[in-house]
Design goal:
The chain is mainly alpha-helical. 78% of the residues lie in helices and 2% in strands. It has 19 helices and two strands. Strand 1 and strand 2 form a beta hairpin. The longest helix has 38 residues.
């Protein structure tokens, strides 16, 4: 991608963000791989409560960047806020290392993770946007590779933490494996901070206006006090499911109100881009409902109805831990991201790149195929109600390709259509929309909740396949909607690019 001195400078800056993002996601996805299992197997939550608690936590984790983006833009600076978020996240994962079965303590630890992610996520994405400002095809490619950083960290941790948990529990007992695995997540954040420190000079010229000013300790203190308060508010929301539901729905209303306000008050030349961003953000909300199934209904399906044996040409090579099946998502994305990034760049140079809206429509079709693969599980199950681990491979492959075409380009969509002056805040608003759908995804997963008195895989199989088939049809409906709005999106995109020129 890079040939000129300026582009080589971009590469160094991008690599710096790529590495800290990779290690931050290593920590997050290592925790995500285990958290529903931890609540069901260790804390003995029923399926419904575990999926709703994690859905609410995921919603908070994705809502928080709206505030973090504003703090980065206006108060501390984008770079400083991102680094503060990485430090807070390392504290959050460290709290999960503490042994015990206190539900309130778990909720407080998740509250710290919410705060850390809020400070980190929007600002890391906004820094990538600033590096490649104004080059649409390169922005698409950069965010696709950036998305690969997310999934490289996820792939490593989702393979490592479940294995480590099982190994420690088997050899040392006392259920300490859970907490040792969470400790590895904290180490990932420390490695990410160390990487950034070594490469920090590549970022000196990238950031928001407050980054160029001396640090205001009073503002930092106010932000930290707000962080502490947010931790306890988040823990309370996780404890009270009714409050969680009201909070998430309110967040959805706020996102729509933000877009409406910006569209109505923005400059005339900016409105087409903002409307386009709103349409694609709504489509992203639909996508994340499907995405949330990976850590909820699909995770529990893997626990109860998937044969852990990995067999190639009749040879049994090894057994997967149920939580490790989630690693197929980042594995596929790691494989497919460079291919798509190359295709976007090549198509852009040839003037044949299709629009983000068209990529979204294609992505929903492929997501539908993935869920229909899972929905067909009953036809491939053995006499004990278990399916081959290869079904998980191909199902995740389809869903992951769809993810790259929808979620993987969500940040690129904000970078392309939203004015630079509101970039960090709108990155945060996009994550709020994602958070709303994460909670909705948790609600959807409850349709596959298995009663505690049902343990036979032959009985759990139809519970899961019923949900997966319905999700497949829902993805086809989303495809039809995405295709229907393509003419509108093309007009908005042409108007947006016309005002840029």
């Amino acid at each position: 991608m890079e040939t000129t001195p300026a582009s080589r400078s971009q590469t160094r800056s991008f690599t710096t963000i790529f590495l800290i993002e990779m290690w931050e996601r290593f920590g997050f996805y290592g925790m995500q791989a285990l958290i529903v299992y931890y609540m069901v197997q260790r804390l003995e939550f029923p399926d419904e409560r575990a999926t709703l608690v994690w859905g609410a936590a995921a919603a908070l984790i994705y809502v928080a960047p709206a505030i973090g983006g504003w703090i980065g833009d206006k108060i501390l600076g984008t770079r400083r806020t991102m680094l503060l978020g990485a430090v807070v996240l390392s504290v959050g994962y460290s709290l999960m290392v503490v042994p015990g079965q206190s539900v309130w303590f778990l909720f407080c630890a998740l509250g710290v993770i919410v705060v850390g992610n809020g400070l980190f996520k929007a600002n890391a994405g906004n820094l990538v946007r600033k590096i490649y400002e104004g080059d649409d095809s390169r922005i698409d490619s950069a965010f696709t590779i950036y998305y690969m950083a997310v999934n490289l960290g996820a792939m490593i941790s989702q393979l490592l933490t479940p294995w480590l948990k099982d190994y420690v529990n088997e050899h040392y007992g006392n259920q300490m494996g859970w907490h040792i695995a969470f400790a590895v997540c904290a180490v990932g954040l420390l490695l990410g901070l160390a990487n950034y420190w070594l490469m920090r000079r590549a970022m000196d010229h990238i950031g928001s206006a407050p980054d160029d000013q001396p640090l205001n300790w009073g503002k930092l203190g106010a932000v930290l006090l707000g962080c502490v308060a947010t931790v306890f508010v988040s823990a309370y929301i996780l404890q009270e499911q009714g409050v969680a539901r009201a909070f998430v729905y309110l967040a959805g209303v706020v996102v729509i109100a933000i877009f409406a306000y910006l569209i109505s008050t923005g400059e005339r030349s900016e409105r087409a881009g903002l409307i386009a961003a709103l349409v694609l953000t709504v489509q992203s909300i639909f996508y994340f409902i499907f995405y949330q199934q990976m850590s909820t209904s699909l995770a529990l399906f893997a626990l109860r109805n998937v044969d852990p044996a990995f067999v190639v040409f009749g040879v049994h090579l090894w057994d997967w831990s149920p939580a490790q099946f989630q690693a197929f998502n980042p594995i596929w994305i790691f494989v497919l991201s460079p291919v798509l990034a190359w295709a976007y760049t090549r198509a852009g140079r040839a003037g044949k790149d299709i629009s983000i809206a068209a990529k979204f429509a294609l992505g929903f079709v492929i997501v539908a195929a993935g869920f229909f693969i899972y929905g067909a599980s009953g036809y491939f199950a053995d006499s004990q109600g278990k399916v081959s681990s290869w079904l998980m491979v191909w199902g995740y492959g389809a869903i992951s390709l769809g993810e790259l075409l929808v979620s993987g380009l969500g940040l690129a969509m904000i970078a392309r259509y939203v004015p630079e002056r509101m970039g960090g805040f709108m990155m945060g608003a996009y994550f709020v929309a994602s958070g709303v759908s994460q909670y909705l995804g948790g609600l959807v997963a409850t349709f596959a909740s298995v009663p505690r008195d049902i343990t036979d895989p032959l009985q759990t199989m139809p519970i899961y396949t019923s949900l997966f088939n319905r999700l497949g049809f829902a993805a086809l409906v989303c495809t039809a909607i995405a295709i229907a709005v393509l003419p509108l999106m093309n007009r908005l995109s042409q108007a947006h690019h016309g005002r840029e020129r």
